[in-house]
Amino acid sequence: MYSNAGGQKPRLIGELSAASDRISVSDFRYGRGAEIFGEAEPAEYIYQVIEGAVRTHKLLPDGRRQIGAFHLSGDIFGLENGATHRFTAEAIVATMVRLVKRKSLDNVAQNDPAIFNTILDMTTSSLVHVQNRILLLGRKTSLERVAAFLLEMHFRSTTAGVMHLPMSRRDIADYLGLTLETVSRAISELRRGLILKFEGTTQRHIVILNVQTLAKLADEPDAAA
Amino acid sequence: MYSNAGGQKPRLIGELSAASDRISVSDFRYGRGAEIFGEAEPAEYIYQVIEGAVRTHKLLPDGRRQIGAFHLSGDIFGLENGATHRFTAEAIVATMVRLVKRKSLDNVAQNDPAIFNTILDMTTSSLVHVQNRILLLGRKTSLERVAAFLLEMHFRSTTAGVMHLPMSRRDIADYLGLTLETVSRAISELRRGLILKFEGTTQRHIVILNVQTLAKLADEPDAAA
DNA sequence: CGATTACTTGAATATCCTCAAGGAGAGTGG
DNA sequence: CCACTCTCCTTGAGGATATTCAAGTAATCG
Question: What is the rounded distance in angstroms from the CA atom of residue B33 to the CA atom of residue B92?
Fold first, then answer.
């Protein structure tokens, strides 16, 4: 559940390369903060993060922002959209993204049940992730939310030991339905409780010292196993 | 978006009857409050509400409850689960439910791209619904949440004019990430503002007097169109 | 009809947010 | 390479929104 945002399996685009004569793939680079696609735009492509990190969000008219997901290296995104994008996607840091034309994907999927099943699986996995987030946003306290977030990032992190967060406290806050100050206070509390520590000089390199306690604080006892 | 919880199209089980020689369909009755399936149980069936109403929920260890969705007459549910159910489902009132064996559905879908597409569409629609709920739970105020809920029920309601809510204030609260008192206060406020009124003697028969204002309060201006 | 459950409203409290200030880190140009 | 600037993060104090606790009334169900 934590291994990958939305549980999307990076293998899809690998599989597609087998049918590469019929699909169009291209790579793009985006600078820090650049928009990859906008909400309500037609969804012509699906995307895979090659390097960097991406956030998706929705805005309310008065500027309140809700981040839908973070996508890290290897993650596929934009698939969960139907005909039009339902989020805006932005590069968090300098990011390379691979684009696959939706139409060519659909064409291949028509004749390949395995790919069709992969698409359905990925969509179902997104649903699982998002359903857990509904419990978090509807019922968890600020400390539980921050603990759950750090746990998620911990398990998604490829580097063992130190975890490198590409996103700001504000991004985390908008992901968890909190303010950046509340996120900062929760992290400070976890630091005082020796559940995590900062590595080096920056506040974005974090070492989880006690995963089990963190999982208990997140109200996700199964994650401690 | 409001016409159906999760946008699931009730047509699936109708389509299936065309292949009824290969699928097993049966009907069950559940009393008020009865459990239809439990979280983490294997998902053997998908379900359609024939009559009545169903709620799905998750519980935290200390009893906090988050309702995932309400399913009304015609709605299909349990499809969004993978191999195991990720919610507990209960009848809100006396309810008749039609069950379809998942395996027989899968078998039919293997050879029928139309049904496969219907399944994918329904899953994608669930995702859309759930993503809008994330914005609601993460960033909306109590009044905005209650307004959005009433608007959703208004558009899903089959009866024109008076809307009959099968669920309690507590159910609504657990759906919106609030307490029942806060929901009650918000409804009272909308009543004082002449945006809705109660019909008859009960507090569950509601008439929306001003849909546009309600949509504005819900921060969903497009719903007013 | 009686008992139970559901809903509303008020008062006090808690959690999280807002406003504010200070300091540390990262990036830029001299 | 260092100074400068901008952004980010932390922490504190005060305030707002929603919750908790409580009581009373109304509606539903057997």
Answer: 6
